[in-house]
Design a protein that fits this description.
This protein has 2 domains: 6-184, Rossmann fold; 187-400, 3-Layer(aba) Sandwich (Rossmann fold), CATH 3.40.50. Helices cover 35% and strands 24% of the residues. It contains 15 helices and 19 strands. The strands form 5 sheets. Strands 12-11-8-13-16-17-18-19 form an 8-stranded mixed beta sheet, with helices on both faces. A 5-stranded parallel beta sheet has the order 2-1-3-4-5, sandwiched between helices. Strands 6-7 form a two-stranded antiparallel ribbon. Strand 16 (323-330), helix 14 and strand 17 (349-354) form a beta-alpha-beta unit. The structure holds cytidine-5'-triphosphate.
């Protein structure tokens, strides 16, 4: 999918710049045309000649160079690119991107680029963990920059932690997938269909001030709601307590407990065409909610928990049932457990992800999903939850339109 694609590689000044030479080689091997832009400090680490030889194109580094601008100016370079990848992206460069500074060719190109932008950060682990760096990363993510890595491990400075630039092979396959995703697919169509989605965690009260909950952020469910809306559906979102803004043009029903979520979903599900259970519903809830604050007494104490009602399975058992999609988080035997859930709960589709193994999942910006249905399945590679949600909605749209699932009403 990288064949003939125009990839603009920005290299900023970090020791990981040497890995970017390999990245150019790999991208060209896959048929991409690569042009390289270097910052002044990148040139202290690696010679432009290396990138010129590997890319087969002159390296760009000057913003205010009349000759370079005549050959291919910064605006033409930005227009030329199908994708801009900055690897390595130093803490300084990320700070510049997050503030919209344009004091050299690479930061100016970023502002001029209308293509998707990817950054592969590389820096000392303390610099990566610094609050201001994390804020800058969050900010560029909100500006639709996709962040690849960094990874954990030994660093050139002798420390260990997060900050190593991802390996060129990993970056290369991430970009190949991204370019494949950019090729326009048939727009998913849920026009005129009512879609009900549950999202977020539930809170199960122990007493007036304490509750049991989980780490679900609700991001996947909210992203699915927006993707379904964009596909033409009328969307209702039953949401546990999350720190996300209510999306425009979507009816949001706020609930707290698994029992409230059960009531909110079951009363609406029969007149919906699709139900997606993306919420992390508590499997157990305290059998008794103490009316007064529990006082500490003994060294140990016991809380009796009662199984909650399985909303997903109940929706799938309805006489007039929507196309029912569940989620599963697994630490091992992912396909076997997910397929067992699919069959046991009589679902139409299940989207499973690894927990404690791959990056992503709960409370994260990114995730990967392994989607299964009877006699079939598809893997949606690691990407941000917005893109992942669009892909899952496309799969659902494709499946409900198969003759087997088409409603004959
Ligand atoms: N679910 C639900 N109601 C519950 C519990 C879970 O609707 N009381 C839904 C979730 O929204 C999700 C799916 O069921 O779509 C998750 O299935 P579950 O069996 O709870 O998975 P795990 O919690 O991973 O369970 P297990 O312990 O079986 O692995």
């Amino acid at each position: 999918m990288t064949i003939n694609k125009h990839i603009l590689l920005g290299v900023s000044g970090g020791i990981a710049a040497y890995k970017s030479a390999e990245l150019v080689r790999l991208l060209r091997k896959q048929g991409a045309e690569v042009r390289v832009v270097m910052t002044q400090s990148a040139m202290q680490f690696i010679s432009p000649l290396t990138f010129q030889s590997l890319s087969g194109n002159p390296v760009h580094s000057e913003l205010l160079d009349a000759d370079a601008e005549n050959a291919m100016g910064h605006i033409s370079l930005a227009r030329w690119a199908d994708l801009l990848i900055i690897a390595p992206a130093t803490a300084n460069l990320i700070a510049k991107l997050s503030h919209g500074l344009a004091d050299d060719l690479l930061s100016t190109l970023y502002l001029a680029a209308t293509c998707p932008v990817y950054v592969a950060p590389a820096m000392n682990q303390a610099m990566w963990n610094k609050a201001v760096t994390q804020e800058n990363i969050e900010k560029i993510r909100r500006h639709s920059v996709r962040v690849i890595g960094p990874e954990q491990g030994d660093q050139a400075c002798g420390e260990t932690g997060f900050g190593r630039m991802s390996e060129p092979t990993g970056i290369c396959s991430f970009l190949a997938q991204a370019l494949e995703d950019q090729t326009p697919a048939a727009a998913p169509c849920l026009h005129g269909l009512k879609v009900l989605i549950s999202a977020g965690p539930t809170r199960e009260p122990l007493d007036p001030v304490r509750y049991i909950t989980n780490r679900s952020s609700g991001k996947m469910g909210y992203a699915l709601a927006k993707a379904a809306l964009n596909a033409g559906a009328e969307v209702t979102l039953v949401s546990g307590p999350v720190a996300l803004a209510a999306p425009a043009n979507i009816e949001v029903v706020n609930v707290e407990t698994a029992a409230q979520m059960h009531e909110a979903v079951m009363s609406r599900a029969p007149d919906h065409a699709i139900y997606i259970g993306a919420a992390a519903v508590a499997d157990y809830s305290p059998a008794i909610m103490q009316p007064e604050k529990i006082k500490k007494q003994d060294e140990q104490t016991t809380i009796i928990l009662q199984k909650t009602k399985d909303i997903l399975a109940e929706v799938a058992r309805l006489d007039k049932r929507p196309f029912t999609v569940g989620f599963a988080a697994e630490t091992h035997n992912l396909e076997a457990y997910a397929r067992d859930k699919l069959a046991r709960k009589k679902l139409d589709m299940i989207a499973a992800n690894w927990v404690g193994r791959e990056l992503g999942g709960f409370d994260s910006e990114q995730n990967a999903l392994h989607v299964f249905w009877e006699n079939g399945g598809e893997t949606l590679e690691m990407t941000d939850k917005t893109r992942l949600a669009e892909q899952l909605i496309s799969l659902i749209a494709g499946r409900i339109n198969t003759p087997l699932n088409k409603k004959g009403e």
